[in-house]
């Protein structure tokens, strides 16, 4: 009787894991903590949660999102770095943490992002978009450059604060176009957008999702994409790079493991993430939320980090930006 019970239990367990790849079952031996350093309701938080749902059947374990906000995501990054490197702790880190903070003068970091985190895969890039307040008469990038050259320092661009991705994108535009735009930093993206809608600031180079509400309501005018590709939501908008070669801004999010995570576990996670983001439902949710699929290998993520860090270090140095 006892033997039949054990056999039945074993059969039930096998059925429960049906469809989960054996290579994942063998490596991930329990519930997974997925750290998110960004506030609930934002793009990064959404990405963590939809990834967690899509990953569960790929690894045969629960993937539990743990939110640890603060220090521009570094509280969560530090928690990942210090965890046991057994594959049961991963985290979502942003481009800024890996490529901007390490080269920002005056910035002190609690971890070394190159040695304390293990790259697993880049996941999603948020579309960068140039928008104007509706008070602006300009509607194309060449006219913007022409006007800025005629009236240096007159046109203004908003950001969510000093050293943010919006600030750096604006400085990259200035550098490549050879123009002078006045930077107006705000305490967050929402007040910056509100001031543009009110006509108090002219433009912003930012993440498309944060603009969608005001674009739909007519308060902001979409002008061009700063990302390498256009979003399916606005297929007829041009790329800024058509007019300024080299202008590419991607605020990407990637998954990292703890310091010292073994290569075979990294491979398990990379395969699971590729399978997760390939699902049609995930692809639709990416598009609907202004994200582009940029999944790749650990080596490709390392190359992206190196290239973006070099680019933003040059922009930071040229603009004389320092941490607040």
UniProtKB/TrEMBL annotation:
| Matching SUPFAM superfamilies | Periplasmic binding protein-like II
What Pfam families does UniProt report for this protein, alphabetically? TctC
Asked if the record carries the keyword Transport, the reply is no
Where would one find the signal peptide in this protein? 1-24
Output the CDD domains linked to this UniProt entry.
PBP2_Bug_TTT (cd07012)
Keywords, comma-separated and alphabetical: Signal
Instruction: Show the InterPro entries listed in the entry.
Output: BUG (IPR005064), Bug_dom1 (IPR042100)
Q: Which family is annotated? A: Belongs to the UPF0065 (bug) family.
Q: What is this protein called?
A: MFS transporter
- The species is Reyranella soli
